[in-house]
Amino acid sequence: MNSNIALVRKDNAELSSSKRFPWIELLALAMAVFICILTEILPAGLLPQIAKDLGVTEALAGQWITLYAVGSLLAAIPLTTATRGWRRRPLLLLCIVGFLVFNTITALSSVYMLTLVARFFAGVSAGVLWGMTAGYARRMVPDAQKGKAMAVAMMGTPLALALGVPLGTFLGAYTGWRLIFGALSLLTVVLIGWLLWKVPDFKGETA
Length: 207
Prior knowledge:
- By secondary structure, the protein is mostly helical.
- 82% of the residues lie in helices and 0% in strands.
- The protein has a single domain (24-198), classed as Growth Hormone, Chain: A (Up-down Bundle).
- It has helices at 2-16, 23-45, 47-54, 58-61, 63-82, 88-108, 112-139, 146-154, 156-175, 177-198.
- Helix 6 packs antiparallel against helix 10 (177-198).
- The longest helix has 28 residues, at 112-139.
């Protein structure tokens, strides 16, 4: 407990010396959340195309969302606990690389069961991401700005629901669902570069 308090005080002392609010860094976290939510929900708008392409019913195609949710549920608490001591940026990058790999598999695979496995592990990446995003954002700013930092980092959720999913569904009807997931992978590559360029690293937390 004392080491955690000392760590927070050290972060605050370092951050208080900088007056700039870290918009660019926090928006990178917002994009990570955007990709996380879009990866989860986007299949709901593309079920007819997915089902037809893979030769399954729409009910079976809908299991893409179920497996993602199960992966998130099973990973959120145990993996967040197991990785709490890891440095923050490498862990965040690992989650984002997970989205890149599993969305790419989803875009390319014609095997239903393989795609379900990819969706499950994409959900695992999401579970870890959800467990660390708010705390990561809070550590970028002094105490007085922690609420604002969390709001900026988490705005990826309403943007994904209000804009990303409808736009992805609309474009998927004309370009095909695989191209949409491919575009999501390309967006993830951009995010990886953004994280390496701007987002600061922090130590993990003690048990």
